[in-house]
Amino acid sequence: MEIRLLRYFVEIAREGNMTRAAQKLHVSQSALSKQMKELETDLHHELFRRTRAGLILTDAGMMLRNRAEDILEMVDKTEDEFAALDEITGGDVSIGCAESHLIAYLAQAIKEFRLTYPRFRFHLFSADTDPLAERLDRGLLDFAVIAEPPDLSKYNYLIFPGTDRWGLVMQKDHPLAAKTAITVDDLLDEDLICSPQCIRFDMPLWCGEKTDQLRFIGTDNLAYNGTICVRQGLGSLLTFEHLANTSEETGLTFRPLEPALEVKMYIIWKKYQVFSPIANLFRKKLIAMYGANRSEAYTGDDSY
How many domains does the chain have? Predict the structure, then answer.
């Protein structure tokens, strides 16, 4: 299976139209159609189905699209890394990020690094810990910033200064808005929205067995989308302080949990990872800036 054919297939899947895809790919429609038929023959499955609305993917086509996009992302990343081998003035680094105001420390490191390497380019991917770790393990990310203590058997890590504090975002006229802090008993009759990671990891740390008594009506992985739900009266949002816009015009407010629930942010990378030159230099920059407590945080060797 050729990489070129995968690029053609993905473009057709995105456009839903053979003619438009051929125009974007700068090939003839007949040649593109012929190559897709050959791909279907090689895979022994129909990939597209024609409808009045255009081409839609079959189940086999959906599976191939998921695989193909991952493969092409890895191919592009590998090509970028090899292109950067002789260009230490710049290059690309991919970083997965949990939502946190502590990402400001990452931004500061990038800002300072670009003063020395102005052609350095960064690519951020936002998600919870599990998808970030998965992408890191598959080589699609160079680094990840997560809100859980990392697996020391797999990763080296540094800790950003400060912590994130959990709390409740609610409408300003909510009865709990009159309180200065929110206890677990306050939440027992509330419709709650939060991340799957919060339900699985953070809430059990905070309220133990009472986690099962909380009424989670929905989950999100981006605080912004969660706050939209709160503004529409769907419930209240468990999230980090500073993530939700609680300015006067939003009609929302934040109250911290009591007892306080605070988490650290860890920037991690795979043990024994072979970095591109620019990614390795950026790793050294991170260690120089945030490795003061390296005896506790950094678990790798001294080869930097």
Answer: 3
Beta-carbon contacts of 133 under 8 Å, excluding residues fewer than 6 positions away, are 144, 146, 151
**Is 0.85 topped by the overall pTM?**
no
What would the pLDDT profile of 85-119 be if each residue is shown by its tens digit?
555 667 899 999 999 999 999 999 999 999 999 99
Q: How far apart are CA 146 and CA 103, in angstroms?
A: 10
- CATH code at position 196: 3.40.190.10
pLDDT, one tens digit per residue, over 9-65 is: 888 888 888 888 888 888 888 888 888 888 888 888 888 888 877 788 888 888 888
Same domain for 205 and 257: yes
Residue 148 and residue 170 share a domain:
no
Closest CA to 123 of 109, 143, 108: 143
The pLDDT score that the predictor gives to residue 295 is 38
59 with 202, same domain: the answer is: no
Distance between CA atoms of residues 6 and 213, nearest Å: 48
Q: Are residues 100 and 151 in the same domain?
A: yes
174: closest CA among 253, 256, 260, 248?
Answer: 253
Helix (H/G/I), strand (E/B), else coil: 257: strand
Distance CA 266, CA 145 (A): 5
